[in-house]
Amino acid sequence: MSAVAAAVGAVPYLPGSPMLTPGSQAAGGDPDSIAPLFREWPREDGEGSFAFYLDSRTDLDEFLAFDYRNADLAHHRSFVPRARRVSDPSLLAAHPELDARPQVADFSEFYSFVEHGADGFTYAHDFRAGNARDVQVPRFHQYRDLVSYWQVFTAVPNAALTDVVHRNGGRCLAFMFNSGPTNFSRDAMLRQDPDGSFPVGDRLVDLAAYFGFDGYMFDMEEGVVDSADKPLLLAMFQSMHERARESGFEIHLQIYGPNPDGRSYADWQSISQEQADYLTTPDAADSWFLDYSWSDYLGTTVDTLAVTDIDPFGQVFFGIELEGFRGEIGVDTTRSPLAEAIPPHGSSLPLGSTALFSLTAETTRRVHAELKDAHGGELPDFEEVRHAVYRGERRFWSGPHQNPALPADGPIGLYGMADYVHARSAVAELPFLTRFNTGASDQFSLAGRRSSAEPWYNLGIQDLLPTWQFWTRNLTTGEPATGPLDVDYDLGTAFDGGASLAITGTPQDDDGVEIRLFRTELELPAESWASLTYTSGSVAHLSLGLVFEDDPDTTTWHDLDVLPQNDDFGPTWGYGSGGRGWGRGGWVPSSSWAAGWRTIRAGSDWQQAVIGLGGEEGRTIIGVSLAVTAPAGTDVDLRIGELAVSANGLQEQTPAAPTGLVLEDSRLRPDGASAEARLIWDVESSVAYYDVLRSGSAEDPAQLVWLGRITADRCYLQTVPVRDGEASVELLLRATAPNGRTSEPAAVTMPVA
């Protein structure tokens, strides 16, 4: 065993020997798995639990003594920093009349079942990533400002959730559930040592700093704290803020409750002047989750906000209970009080922000009910269920037409969240690169070639997805439209990752369709360019549209069909030895470089169009669109595999080969056809992500097999294919920079015989 592996506490492996790890019974049912599960000490009932599950059976001393820096939990750290969002979400918005101040907190399920909803949790919660098909991942993080993983009350969120929330510019909170009186509430949680410190508060801050998330939502149900505890709770919050700053980050603390003296639930549903101390005391609670019947006590809250300096949009979240709803998917104003806090379409001034509860589970359950109604009480095949579940998610956020610019119609007041709040965007830094990877698929592709046929999920590597899903409008009139083209993600076709953007349909006229994709804030340096990688099975014409900050009412269109074909520049996708990129391989900028070109990716159907933007230096792109035109009656069949905006000067960075690569652990499965592995390496902050691969077949060893992608310093591989007769498998680790260029690989050998 290497010194690195020994330092992290790895168990030495002998091929064929069992390797028992805490909670490994949940690793796909395999008791000998080496999976680094999100597990901890047994509870009093003898059952295992998620790491740091704080409830009535938790022992304080055991919690404080537990070594969270162990080899298993080191796999659950997030290294993705919070991205900067665009400064004004109302600019170029689907509904510019909306107030830009209201925020959205989402307390929902993640990694629930596509087919089975959230009726009981899935083993996927135990993993950061894995090889399973029936795992649902959310695709609308552009609306979420605060996110917490409520389904399992845990003091450390799944790192994949933190990764994607940070990439989209939001904050990820752990969910602290305390129902009392218990042995982990009141005296235990608020215990103060003689030196004035709060051991529980200190430990919670240390967990956030180590695992990379942003804070906690304290669920103070059933009189966990009362008026006598208020000074201690405020002091603990202040202590936590101070300790967080000493650790180099700003912590966010949200509370649900507490009621002033434990009298009744009604006290949670408004903010009185007495309760306002939690928000007005410096460095106390950062925000408040108002219980769901707040509408009945709204006057008290409004009066309190009028006489305090509480920020209603940053600090007050009006809770919306979705658990158990069985109506249409969306926000029904006839039954939901949301419109009282945030009037749809900006019809009057909003009062604050909102917090959604149990969105994913309830949307999925409703979709299942609709499908069963249409199929004789049974769910149809998996593909239809999966498609319907994600369409249901889009209906909730974008409205019943699945177009955020189209308000609902019909007799009921049914809206999507896009009718209440703006989508935010984190496309605010160059280089910008997205491959429309949703974070779960049935395959994985690299450089336009399928590199794995294994199903997989990893929310943490989801790309920045379109700000508006999907804002289509008539190219001639500019009016939003429900057709004639359909836009969705294709999980069967990808350029890099697991998905592409599919544009299909049959136009009935020659007007064309605009698809507004991204709200951006990209200031262009010298020698800038935009590129689109796509494949077409039709005669449709494709154009890339850019909107600039100094002329927001004009879209500048670049027709890709008129670009000259030039395949002498070689591969420009950043793959291969050294990762050749734009500005290399024969292209020397000249006076004519702004015209751009198209090139075919050798051995594939993908082509790349590069549009020079040298004449736009100093301007800021605030919006990116696509336009599709085709003769009436023509079938359109397009796939968009990559969209990028960068500049020659930003393409010079090629990451160095990863260092410190160690096989922490491995195990050959009993059937001999696959193995598990745990790898460790030195993480570099300049790297966007790491890919783990193995060599191809004996006939084609150059064709690499993708095994996993992650932004961290280690990974667990659930399925490494092992071929007959192999005594060892060479595992490769390759780094990719934000500009898409890749490093030379590092290698480590895994014995399998």
Task: Please state the structural category.
Answer: alpha+beta
Report the count of strand segments.
Answer: 35
Side by side, the strands of the main sheet go 1-4-5-6-7-8-9-11
Give the quaternary arrangement of the chains. Answer: single chain
The rounded Rg comes to 26 Å
Characterization of this structure:
The protein has 753 residues and is of the alpha+beta class. The protein has eleven helices and 35 strands. The strands form nine sheets. The chain has an eight-stranded parallel barrel. Strands 13, 19, 20, 22, 25, 26 and 28 form a seven-stranded antiparallel sheet that branches. The protein has a five-stranded antiparallel sheet with strand order 18-21-27-23-24, with no helix packed on it. Strand 25 (597-600) and strand 26 form a beta hairpin.
Short summary of the structure?
This protein has 753 residues and is α+β, with helices and mostly antiparallel strands. The strands form nine sheets. An eight-stranded parallel barrel has the order 1-4-5-6-7-8-9-11.
Keywords:
753 residues; alpha+beta; eight-stranded parallel β-barrel; seven-stranded antiparallel sheet; 11 helices
